[in-house]
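Regression report. Comparing outputs from two consecutive submissions.

Submission 1:
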Amino acid sequence: MVISILGGLILLLLLMGTPLKPIRVVGQGLIKILIGALLLFFLNAFGTQFDVHVPINLMTSAVSGFLGIPGLFALVAIQFWVM
């Protein structure tokens, strides 16, 4: 019974196609998080001269990825304010 239901769902997806909109949104979000991690890496690499270090984790990568350069400056300001 389970195999026939799964087979029917696979056949339905093959005939209709997959919903591309949710997959595209998730993919764009992951790319922005990766770009944010890359920005943080360069900030930490060049920021050692100015004693700036922001840890690279999922939250900081998401903030810097989705907000861009202003988000990166906000993370640096928060880091200085906390320290």
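Submission 2:
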Amino acid sequence: MSLHSSNATAGRRRSAPRLWPLTSCLAVLIAAGGAIAQPDTGGGAEAHAKLEMLGYAEAHVRRERELEQRFDAQLSSAELREWLKSMSSGPNQVGSPHDKANAEFMLQQFRDWGWDAQIETFNVLYPTPQHELLQLVAPRKFTARLQEPQLAADATSGARGQLPPYNAYGADGDVTAELVYVNRGMPDDYKELERRSINVQGKIVIVRYGGGWRGLKPKLAHEHGAIGCIIYSDPADDGYAQGDTYPRGGWRPADGVQRGSVQDITLYPGDPLTPGIGATSSAQRLPIASAPTLMKIPVLPISYADAQPLLAAIGGPVAPLKWRGALPITYHIGSGPARVHLQVQSEWSLKPIYDVIARLPGSELPDEWVVRGNHHDGWVFGAGDPLSGNVVLLEEAKAIGALVKSGWRPARTLIYASWDGEEPGLLGSTEWAEAHAAELAQHAVLYVNSDSNDRGFLRAEGSHSLQRLVNEIANEIQDPETHVSVLARLRAKLRVDDYEGTEGHNQKLAQAAASGADVPIGALGSGSDYSAFLQHLGMASLDLSYGGEADQDGVYHSAYDSFDHYARFGDPGFAYEVAEAQTVGHLVLRVADADVLPIQASDAYTVYEGYLHELHRLADDKRARAALWSTLKQARAFELASDPTRPLSAPAAEPEVPYLEFAPLDNAMLHLQRAAHGYDEAYAAAAAQGLGLDSAHRAQLDAILQRLEPSLTDEGGLPGRSWYRHLLYAPGRFTGYGVKTVPGVREGIEQGAFQEAERYVTLTAQALNRYSQQLEAATALLTGGSPQ
């Protein structure tokens, strides 16, 4: 489920050619007192003569790099390939025997490598499909295939134990109605229907994947009165319009189907029946009928082979140009004369999920935890998603185990976790985080996530105080294909994309790349296992992977996400698997052994200041747009511009936008600027002198820094969804996976809830002031004073 976040994401985990889904603001060239390494164009070699590393006294840097070299020597592409083939040899959905067998295999591996490992089991609501039917009953007859055929070129495609294509947590139902095509099924699409006097009341809608998270499609359909929802993959997005289809190429074949959850994770992820608490055997559960994250209408995913006859039978107006896909038909909206019969029946019961948790106690700071996670369950075999990332996690754990056996121990405690049940709704990670919330609040200093991984460019998202650390790591990892550093290659890509005007390019990022400034990391929305840690508990978090060059998106969440496909089209030499293990492994080792937790506060300030500028601009732009609508309406411009033969009413009125009181946020940002630069200067001065902290002061400083990210949360959470507590990062109400930064304010402005927006201006300002106060306390400790 781990789509890399943006404010307008597709329903897939990734959409090529998106690289790092980066922030919109330019990073500072050199934060006050911070050291910026020059780009390592040779990859792997040190970029400058003087050894520098965030969080380390200079005397300890060479020792750490030698440790990383010993770690790298343990990594094996052949081993990664072997594990991936074995772990993806059977279906791995929740409740499958092979998913449990994989958990037991990993448990034994961790123990063999010297980790203290166990399986923690939770019992979650999971609907298993029993019966599905989709028929076109008028104006002609057609019965959808609703299955993916075996392919001779794919050894596992005919394996037993596969479930049919389904959308988990859609309602059971047996409905027959006219069909309406609603494009991506997002809010703006329903506005377009309204302008054409078309409604979906009592109808079944057919929508294509993309434009927003899949779970929003049936949710919005139900809110507009639809009684059923069909979701299909259009070849324009990930089929033959993108390249040769599987097995000739990597893209989605005609019968390939994207499965996926439609649980309403914009309210909360995890077990639908136990919000906020771990789904243990003794947990108090909501009645199924009362669970707010379950869909209210039946939902079914289909292939474009099954979708084409349905779409071809729809009449009514021709669809707008931007609604048209790549099928060889004329796209119409409806409703009718197409009429369909949809049946979905599932078995609803509690099923066990198996989280594999492995620990290595810290030798110096055992009460500080670095948590590393990836999930192991898939919709079917899940070779690319998630096992390509999960075997990397295993490879890291094996290499760390070898270091321990050679006499090294991490200063801080390491916890490696392979989560179950991520695909249906981040179940395993959320339940574990909720069950251990008090311990994590006291001990956890970082959560590092990964998910799928394949050929291409480094993707990094997360807490922006860790941006400098990510750039340091990226500057020293060699790209397997070009043999420069992965950071140097990313810089080149950003500059070329800007020059060529590639979709998603960003001039400010290109300028940062050219200048040698840190490349900004992205903000985290939702769609993978970091959600509970960052957005509910307020833990500093990162999500790291490679991608963007593999033809892997076409088999996303299908039965063809197999070892055979991944070995041909994902990462044929498993070289980027090794690069991922190096990248995440080095980061884990550096945080585990750092003299001081490695943060650079100025990076966070620069990013947050950019968010504030965006909010000012958003309010001003909406105010100007509302005024323009009034002018156009008064001049009858919409009426006169409309084609009389294709009636189109004026768009809905834009709400009048008041002048919001941003002063609390503006002042909080000035406070943060002073505090951030003050801390970075104090740290740089202390590091130059060898830090000189005894163990007690070191632990005290870490405790202050640990509280930075939690200070950005609010116990009351976001409007209408209190589970999400982070006031800087959250999945959007109408993006699902895609991030909304400063969400309480931004979404209030976007949705015309201006009193709500002003309330969250105050709450967010208070959070930023708490963050600044923590930085000031840390600065006082570094400069020999007493923390306030």
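Expected: both submissions complete independently.
Actual: both completed, but the second showed a warning that disappeared on reload.
Relevant detail on submission 2: The first strand starts at residue 116 and ends at 138.
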